């Protein structure tokens, strides 16, 4: 009985140790450095789907690599940030996250399948920041429906 319990316990312990490292949300955020300012941009919900509410996340830190400190509350004060699709663009309004010091969020609802980009222009902490950040491809929901709707 004791031997059977030990044999059953080993896979459970291994699973408890391995699963937190193996299962994590998709992270297709793009990181770019501008002098000593690091900007990371991506979508909160991946894959992004037509008609679903999503969040464009912008993370802003001073420094690079493992040696960074969050720029809180005011990082985007001198920035213009737009989301683009084809020739269309919309200016995004960001609010600081309540939970993550370097995070700023703007809500979007993609309405077309395809490629979206975020364009940033301005200055952060005196550093010029001008770049295009590609987002994940927006997909149609049809391939995820089960059972199929039609």
In summary, what is this structure?
With 150 residues, the chain is mainly beta. It has one helix at residues 2-22; strands at residues 30-34, 37-43, 54-64, 67-70, 79-85, 88-91, 95-96, 103-108, 117-124, 127-134.
How would you explain this protein's 3D organization?
It is a single chain. This protein is mainly β and 150 residues long. The chain has one domain: Immunoglobulin-like (Sandwich). The chain has one helix and ten strands. The strands form two sheets. Strands 1, 2, 3, 4, 7 and 8 form a six-stranded antiparallel β-sheet that branches. Strands 6-5-9-10 form a four-stranded antiparallel β-sheet, with no helix packed on it. The longest helix is centred in the first third of the chain and has 21 residues, at 2-22. Mean pLDDT is 87; it is low at 18-26.
| Principal-axis shape | globular
Q: What class would the helix/strand composition place it in? A: mainly beta
Portion of residues within helices? 10-25%
Q: In what range is the share of β-strand residues?
A: 35-45%
Let me know the number of strands.
10
What would you give as the CATH superfamily?
Macroglobulin (MG2) domain
Number of domains: 1
At the fold tier of CATH, the topology name is Immunoglobulin-like
The total count of helices amounts to 1
Arithmetic mean of pLDDT: 87
CATH class: Mainly Beta
Head-to-tail CA distance between termini: 53 Å
Main beta sheet: 6 strands, antiparallel
Question: How many whole angstroms does the radius of gyration measure?
Answer: 20 Å
Order of helices and strands: HEEEEEEEEEE
Uncertain segments are 18-26
User: What oligomeric arrangement do these chains adopt?
Assistant: single chain
From the coordinates shown, what is the CATH architecture? Answer: Sandwich
């Amino acid at each position: 009985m004791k031997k059977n319990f030990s044999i059953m316990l080993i896979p459970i312990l291994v699973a408890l140790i391995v699963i937190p490292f193996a299962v994590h949300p998709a992270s297709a955020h793009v990181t770019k450095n501008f002098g000593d300012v690091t900007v990371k941009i991506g979508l909160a919900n991946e894959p992004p789907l037509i008609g679903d509410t999503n969040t464009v996340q912008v993370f802003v830190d001073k420094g690079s690599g493992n040696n960074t400190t969050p720029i809180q509350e005011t990082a985007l004060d001198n920035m213009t940030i737009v989301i683009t699709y084809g020739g269309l663009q919309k200016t995004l309004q960001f609010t600081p996250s309540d939970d993550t010091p370097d995070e700023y969020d703007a809500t979007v609802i993609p309405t077309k399948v395809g490629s979206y980009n975020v364009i940033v222009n301005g200055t952060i902490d005196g550093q010029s920041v001008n770049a295009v950040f590609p987002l994940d491809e927006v997909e149609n929901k049809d391939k995820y429906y089960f059972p199929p709707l039609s």
